[in-house]
Structures are given as structure tokens and as C-alpha cells.
Amino acid sequence: MSMRPISLTVNGTTFTRTVEPRLLLSDFLRHELGLTGTHVGCEHGVCGACTVLLDGAPVRSCLAFAIQMDGATITTVEGLASDGELHPLQEAFQEKHGLQCGFCTPGILMTMLPWIAEHPNPTEAEIREALSGNLCRCTGYQKIVEAVQLAAGGGRGEG
Amino acid sequence: MKPPRFAYHDPTTIEEVLDLLHLHGDEAKLLAGGQSLIPVLNMRLTSPKVLIDLGRIPMLAFIREEAGFLALGAMTRHALVERSALVAQRQPLLAEAIRQVGHPQIRNRGTIGGSLAHADPAAELPAVLLALGGSVVVQGRGAQREIAAADLFQGLFTTAIGPTELLTEVRVPVLPERTGWAFVELARRHGDFALAGVACTLTLAPDGQIAGCQLALTGVGAGPVQGSAAASSLVGKMPSATSFAEAAALVQAAVEPESDIHATAAYRRHLAGLLTERALAQALARVSRLEGGAAG
Amino acid sequence: MSGELKVSGTAEAPSAVGKASQTEATGRATAHGIGASVRRREDPRLLRGEGFYVDDLRRPDLLHGAVVRSPYAHARILSIDTSRARALPGVELVLTAPDLGKLNGPLPILIPHEDLQYPRTQSALVLETVRHIGEAVAFVVARDRYVAEDAAELVEVEYEPLDVAADLEAAAQPGAPLVHDDLESNIGGHYVREVGDWAAAKAQADFVLTERFRLDRGTASPMETRGIVAIPEANALTIYVSTQAPVALRGGLANWFGIPEMQLRLIAPDVGGGFGPKVMMFYPEEVLVPFAALELKRPVKWIEDRREHFVATTQEREQIHDVEVAATKDGRLLGLKTTMLHDSGAFTPYGIQTPIISITTLPGPYQLRNYSVEFKAVYTNKPIVTPYRGAGRPHGVFVMERMMDRIAEATGLDRWEVRRRNFIQPEQFPWSTGLIYQDWAPCTYDSGNYPELASRLEALLDRERTERELAEARAAGKYVGLGIGFYVEGAGPGPYEGVRVRVEPSGKVEVATGVGTQGQGHQTTFAQVVAAQLGVDLEAIHVVTGDTAAMGWGIGTFASRAAVVVGNAAHMAAGAVAEKAKQVAAQLLECRPDEIELADGMAWVRSERERVRASAGVDGEGAPRGIPLGELARRANPLRGTLAFPEPGLEATKFFSPQQSTFPSGCHAAIVEVDPATAMIEIKRYLVVHDCGTMINPLIVEGQVHGGVAQGIGSCFYEKLVYDEWGQLLNASFVDYLLPTALEVPRIETDHIETPSPLNPLGLKGAGEAGVIPCAAVIAAAIEDALRPFGIRISEMPLSPTKLWSLIQNSSGR
């Protein structure tokens, strides 16, 4: 089918590529741009591993086509650290052991990044609800919750 | 899990959409937020030859108040509705229900028009629209019509929208005065489709009698189910556990749920009644609080 | 008791059997030594999105595979027409079974067993008869995955459906449709054991209780599915696989394809979760992808998608137990008999490991002297069953702990007291269960302290207060309940693992092991073990896992064994390198090796260093003489002259080959509230007390426990694979197969005791599976307790709201 050129900004860099209409955004980021930090866990919009920021808001990149992204601004996990320094959210995940195999982690970071900006001092219950669109099979979530709490300046005990 | 091939169009006007629908007929599918369509494309459960993306039509995304109702553009994302102060103030039932649609990432892409046109039997918004007596505006070539919610939903994933028509606007009546509301659903996990859910409003007369009640359910039929008999049974009565239980019994008699891997029909019928009682009680608590606040 | 026990978090030396002062040997006292909750070293890379999982491999010449899978659970293939698929532009290869010749299989059996009388294994592609839904029928290779899936849809297969044996019980009956029509029945394995004298125990008993228990099927669902890339080069083949057993898989594939092992390099890069199914071999794709790559002389990638994962990756947990238990009126367990059906699925490549683990885990922490066991491993037209985290242990524990609760009810004794009366006591170790474990070694418990576990759990729970609060909540009309459960699990089995430790002239230390890592933090824990021996910072250590070019011997990461077997091998190898370093340093510093101390990356004369330290450098004696480890490595590998040692450099490879398993133990408690109107449950508290012997890194152990509990909770209330009578899987997606989210998994409270294993130098026991094992038993007990007014019995897992509601509806209670 007819290919079409698109131009979009990913992690601050503008890319122009020609894409087939059916190419998923997740595959475009991973295989066309080589940004393999965005992971694919289910390709039907449940696991959240492929979450990226589209114009600042977290979305499932497996549930969008690259061709729809002409003119869009996207941030992936690779855009999180700056000048080699981990983002405080990333640091908190290491500090609290918020990851094991690391496969779901990028999607969780990208989900929680805008959320903690909007929710200073969240309760545990609020964090758990915000996390509920991301599946993790290793951690049992508790240390993820603690990491988010740390990054969000939390400490407001039980929710 | 890669989607099959399709031709892609992203028109910028409604007219272009209608032209494309005429041209491609059944072979075309409209792509709104894509949060229900793209999964089934990825699973290759459907193979449309043409996808018409509505994402480039700016005039389809809006929320505004008109005479007695809120008008929402079909491409208004769930997240926008969720954050709308206008919606929260004028139709809090919609605001409450929309927070239970999927997860934040889904709500950032999903659209209100897409949800209604998809007509999933366990979705939240169809029941809300039906309970509130809302409607949708659909545009065909040279003709526009309004379809009441009661006529819109016609069974599993089926609506009264024609193959060459486009849902452009959703109309949701604003909440009347002295009215409480509740959207109560039960799902296996947070964010899942409901095993059963109830949308209701309860309007009290100044003397405390029930002046009006709106009631619709999700997850207990082929589409959203209106609890008309139950709702009208309440009018003129004083709100009480007894009157709510009677209404719940009428709901249970009216619904015809199916068994599936998540729940038996008997359990769903039971939930329909139970959640009706709980929703009515919550709506009553809210209207009482409003009234109390007004008095104070 | 006090002599046996070591409180977690303290720096006291253990004093268990055969363990002299460990403090110095293990470096427990240092900030990153054994016992320190070091932050993980692998994290920054993973957090930046710089992990390297199989699907992250990119190459310009890469081709992509897709598998054509059977839509039937049992059918005969009448014809396959691949012509339309081959004609599609971009398609490079379409394979069906005959194309593979003898390489198609049947594939070898991984773990034969004398009681698996009729083993049957899968083939790479089905030649004649499909035996479970999703079985691979054809393999397509194309320029990208999209085109490969297009082509897969164009492969036309004509099937003749056959009668299906889907239900476990029905399949075990005579006259059931045969999964393998060359057999007389679907019973593939039949196992009978008798410990003590069940009949005599039954005759002596004050009462005998009988019950039937059932656990159903689930799937491990690591967030990363399986994936394989095969890259052929002039004289070699490199294969990347998301596997838990890279060395074993390399050996198997080299043998299968007739490639010398040294020319086949297999790499398990970052693996996004394993939990058991990624130990299985061979999966059909592990043959298909290398075969296609060799055929096309181009690299080929296949990544399992989530829908495939539901039918093409192995599953676990379906068993039915009929149980009789004999006891006295004062609550003493005299004997237990169980007759069990185990659903093997369509093939038995993994032998009967899972049911054997079940029946050997069943006795738990109790003095069970008369035990009669019989099980049948039954073929069904469903995907293959192999171990999934817990691997049969949750079933055994479910049976025993449910029966302990029943004895408590029957005797009117408190649930805790019944268990206390039957515990194996600390002075009774080693305790022989009289059984042979999954490793063909005696199932003999090495050490433990079960009464102390119970006391710790009571303390963590604040039992008195909790019971008061429960009573108050009940009085207020709430349905709340407490469940408890204990377990002992065999872990850390052999045969062996090896570690090579090598100090490079730069001072960097390379540690190589054959096991793969799937999130367990091996970069950190193995480094802690090595750092303690060599006196270097963790930053100096690089751990290589899962690359056969770095370490060609190994078994795999499963059965909570990596820390135990690799950890001790690392300890031994690093110890040997330390000895060598001391010898080299002693020559240069003109002293005896035992006068050398390794610290801060240097070798010192201990007495000099202590003297300087004592005087804080003010007495003008000058700095102590020290030689960097890297310098010692260089001196031990001179370019000319003679070598003063039999081997060059600072390098050692050591193997740890345990002669039997270790036996970690623990207990869990849950407080659950049930809304009887909706039958929804809420876990108000979940508590774990855990003994995995010495903990290398308590933070990582805690993470392992949490993850296990989350999977256990999934198996209790959310995760069930639903098959219909035609063997169709009705919920093959994450929409309908429900993994717990952050809202379903409660906060988990943990405490640890450490009774070191006397069976290995570090005293390790293994921690990978602890969290999951008693979960089903504990939640069942808590729900039953909460719903005591209804008098319902929970003898089946998983539950669902609809099932629990039916139980309540049909109950005798209010």
C-alpha cells in the first residue's frame, strides 16, 4: 500500500521517514528509529510496556499508527536522562529496587513521569491507581510504589 | 500481532469523510481513538480495506454547553472530558463514569464518539447516555439527524448509525436541580470492562419524594439496558431501602444477561439488582448532601 | 533454638551445623559484602532503556518469522498448501514438517523418569496429527514480521477434527479419546510410593478426614514473551534466545543440528522474566529459527507475540488431589494418603518433575511418618505443562495446609496449635521425609526452625491484637478472616554450576557463569560474593551471565538455584583467586601468603597495615606496602622468564555440585475481607516470614518474595486459563486472562530468619519461589474464615467472584 512521509519530533530530534500505513508506532520507534527502550509486551493495549508520551501525555504506542504521528512530539524512555544523569524518577527506581527484569520499567517510567508532576505528595492508594494500567510480573509492585513515592516527594503514609 | 494492510486516509473535513464513506462503503472503517479498533486489527480479527482517521478534523473535538445539554464533539478524548470543569459541574455522572473507562493511557487516546459508536455491551458510556436520555448527532451527505440513545443501541456492537453516516456530536442533558447521581460498576480488576454496572440519577421533590429517576445498566445484556420500569416505580415514593429494593427487583426481572468466562448469568442478574440498590443509595446520599448544603 | 537462629540484618556469625565463623570468610561486615542491601548495578542501564532483549537486536539483513498454528486441539492434517504464501512478495521461505527431515523430531525428552512409562514429545512442526491448540504447523520467513503474518494467513491447511480429551478427569478414564493413539490410554506416567505404613496409621487414628482438592491452569506470562534470533556466519552460528538455560540449550541444539559446540554460541541477553517456562527445551521455534537461518544463510528473528504465548509457551498448575488424613484427637498427624491426577498436556518433554515436586513438597514442616502417594500423569489435548514458579509446590502445600485447618476444626484446637504439635523440631535436622526428590537425591531437610517461623509470624501479625480486631469487625457485621500457611520447599538442586573469576591487569575482575539472568540481580549478588573474597569494590567487577562463549558449562536458572549453586561456585572461584593473589603477593613482599590481606583492590602485609592504621599515620612509619591486584595479575603472567606457579594469571574456575537440595521454609498469613453480596475480596494484610538461609542481598530477596506473592495472588483469584470441551482456550489475551495490577496486590509485610544451610559454604538456601508457594492455601483459609457463618469449604483454586458467589448461595449458612 502507498507509503507516506511523516515528520515528527522524538526526544527533541526531528525525524522524517516514509512509512506504511499499518506500521505501529511501537514498531516505528523500535525498529525504524532504533529506540528499543520502548518495549512491546502484548500489542493489544493492556500491559502498558510500550507507553510513551505523545504531546506530553502517556499513550500506548502499540495502539497508534506511525502515520498518525506526522507533526507529533514524542518522548520515550531514552529521552528521560539528561547529560548522562538519571532523572530523579529513574534514580528512585534504583534506590527502592523498583525493577527486576526491567521489561515493564520504561512504560512505567513514562506513565508516572507526567503523573508525579501533577500529583505532588501522592498517597499510596493514588499511586497504585495511577500504576494500574501497567503490568509488572516481577516486583509485586510494592517497590515500584515506594520508588514513585520517593520521586514524588511522597511519604504521606497509608492512603 | 501485526495489523493487515489497509489504505489510509486522514481527511480534515467532515465532507471528505462522508465522500470517503460513500466511495468505500462497507470496506471502510472509521478510526477514532483506536483503543478498541487497533487491538482487533493487531489480532487480525477484522481486515478493513480502508481506514478513515478522524484525528485530523479539529472541529470534531469540543465541549460546550447549549440549552439544557452539554454538546461534546465525537473526537473529544476521554481525558479531556475527565478533566473538564464544565462536565464535572453540569453532568457529574458523566465525569464519574468516564474515570472508570480503561486506564489513563487509554483515556488519553480514546474518544467519546468512538466509545458510543463501538457499542461494547460492557462499556460505561452507552449506559450513561441511555440513563440520561442523551442523543448523538450523525451527519450524512446533505442530511443531519439526531438519534436518541434509546434508539441508538441495537445490540452487540451495533448501532443505528448508517454505513455512510458519521457520528459528530454527543448530547448529554445537564443534571437537573435537586438531583443526585451515581455510576457504580463491578469489574474483576480496576479498569476492566464491568461484570455489571449501573448509571443512575435521582431527583427529589421539595417534599423529599422522588420526583424523577433515570437508570441504565451495562454488562447485563447485548447492549446498555434501560431500567425504565424500576425508575418509574420509584417516582412519587419516598426514598427508602424498601423502595430501592423493589426497584432492584424490577431491574433483575428486566435484564437478560449471558454467562461467559467471567460470570454466570445468575451472578450478573444478582449484581444488576445489588448495584442498582447501591447506586440509588449513593445518588440519594448525594442529593441529600446537596439539599443539606443548600439549606445550610 | 538460639544456637540455630540468626536474626536478619545483624552481623553475627551463624553457628549452624558445620559452620564456624563466617563473618570474615564472607565479608559480611563490609558495606557491599554478603548480607548488605546493595542497590542493583544493572539498574541504570535498564532504566535508561539501554537493556538488550532479544527483539532489540537489529541488523539490515535480518529476516522475520511467523508460525502458522493449529486452530484445533486435536485434528489430522489432510493437506497443506503453501503456494499462495510462497508467492507473496517479500516471502523468503515457507517450511512444513517434511522440509526439516529428521531434524523435525520428535524432539528429545529433556528429563526422562522411570515412572514416566510412556513419554511423548513434540515435533518442530506437526507432521500428521495436531494435539493441542496452537501447535506449530508451518513456519514462514519474510522481509518483515508484517509480511510474514500476511503469508502465514495464506498457508492453507485442511484439517480433519478428531475427538478431544480436554478435561483432566475425563481424559484419565478408560475409553477417553486418545491424545496419542499408539497408547492404550492417556496415562503417560504412573508413580506409587509408600513411606511408613499408611494402613496401620489409619487403623490407629481417632479420625480420618477425606477431601478432594483441585488447582487449575495458569500461565507464567513474563512481560517479555519468548524470542529467538539465529545468525549464521561462515563457520559458526550465533543464537540469541530469551531462555533461562542458555548452556543446556546450546548443547542440545549443537547435538541436534550436528554442529560442534564450539561453533555454536548461544546468548541469553537481558531476559524479561522467565518464571519457569523459559527453561523448557526444545520449543519448536528453537529448531525452526536456526534451521531457516542456515537454509537461507541469513539471520532470522522470531518473536512470540502475546496471543501465541497463550498457546505456544508451556503452562502449569492443573492437578486434582484426593486426600485422606489420619489424626488423633489431640491433633497429631498420623498419616496421609493422596491419589492425584496431573495434567501433562499433550507432551511430556519435561518428564514428571512437576507432580514429583508436588508430592515431595506436600509433607511440609510436619512430622509425617506414614505417607502413601499415587499419581497419574495424564495426557490431554492442551498445551504442554512444565514448571511455573512454584512448580507443583503450591499444590502440595495447598493439600497439607487445608488438611491442617480441617484437623483443627475436627479437634476444636487452634490452627496454630495443631501445626505446632506436628512441627519437625530444630534438633531433628537433618530430617528425612523418606522420599526421593526431583533431583534423584534424598528429600532430606538440611536445617530450619519452624516453631520460630510461627512465633515470628505471630509477632509480625501482632496476633493478639489482630484477633481482637477481627472479632470487633465481625461484631460490626464485617466478613473478615485470617488464613495461615507453612511450607518447606526443596531448592537449589544440582547437578552443578561453574564460575570463572579472572583478574585482569587493569584490576578489573571478570566473573563468568553459564546461567542466564531474568531479573534476579545476578550482576549485583554474584559481585557481592566475589568482592567479599577479593577485597575489591563492586565497581571493579563485571559479571557475565548467559553467554556460552564466556562460560560453556552450566544448567540454568530455575528451582531457586542460581544464588545457591552459582553463588557458592563464585565464592569458591573467588577464594581460589584470592589464594593465588596472596601467593604472588607473598613472593613480591617477601612474606608468607597467610600474612597477606586483600582489601581496597590491593594486597597488603596485614601487620604493616594494621600498624599504620593504629598509629593513624602519625608515627612516621610511612605507608604500608601494597600491590594492586591488577599488578599481581600482570606479575603472574610474565612475557619472558619462568613462571613460579603451575598456572598463569589470577584466574580460577570452580564448580559447585551439591549432592542434594537445600530446604528453605516459611509461612504466610493473610487477612481478607469478603463482601458476601458481591463475593469480591479485599486482602487487608499479607505477611511473610521467610527463611532462605544466608541472604546475600536482603533487598533483592524481599523483591523476590514480593513478586512471588503477586503471582500467588494471581493464581488465587484472577488467573485461570479457561478451556472448553474442544480444547479451545477461551481467554487467550490480557483482556480476559487477568494478571494482577498494583490494585490487586496488597502491601506485603516481611520478616526473615536465617538458618544457614550446612550443605554449602555460604549457607544459602534459595529464594526465588518462596513468595508463591503457600499463597493459595493461605487465601483459601482466610476466605473460609471470613465466611465462617456461611459454612463454605474452599477446596479449589483459583476462585472468582462468580464462583465464590455460587458457593455462598449454595451454602447452609445465613
Gross morphology of chain A: globular
Q: Oligomeric status of the shown chains?
A: heterotrimer
Helix percent of chain A reads 25-40%
Number of strands of chain A: 5
Main sheet of chain C, how many strands, which sense, barrel? 7 strands, mixed
Structural class of chain C, by secondary structure, is alpha+beta
The structural class of chain A is alpha+beta
**Rounded mean pLDDT score of chain A:** 95
Rg from alpha-carbon coordinates of chain C: 28 Å
Give the strand line-up of the largest sheet of chain C. 4-6-2-13-10-11-12
The mean pLDDT of chain C is 94
Q: What is the molecular shape of chain C? A: globular
Query: Largest contact between protein chains?
Result: A-C, 59 and 56 residues
Strand order of the largest sheet of chain A: 2-1-5-3-4
Low-confidence stretches of chain C: 1-29
Indicate the proportion of strand residues of chain C: 15-25%
Can you count the beta strands of chain C? Answer: 30
Question: Can you tell me about this structure?
Answer:
The complex is a heterotrimer of chains A (159), B (296) and C (814). Chain A is of the alpha+beta class and 159 residues long. Chain A is built from 5 helices and 5 strands. In chain A, α2 crosses α5 and α4 packs across α5. Chain A is globular and about 50 Å long. Chain A starts with a strand and ends in an 8-residue tail after the last helix. The C terminus of chain A is likely disordered. Chain B has 296 residues and is of the alpha+beta class. Chain B is 38% helix and 23% strand. Chain C is 29% helix and 24% strand. Chain C is globular, with a radius of gyration of 28 Å. The chains are: A alpha+beta (159), B alpha+beta (296), C alpha+beta (814). Chains in contact: A-B, A-C, B-C. At the A-C interface, α1, α2, α3, α4 and α5 of A face α2 and α20 of C.
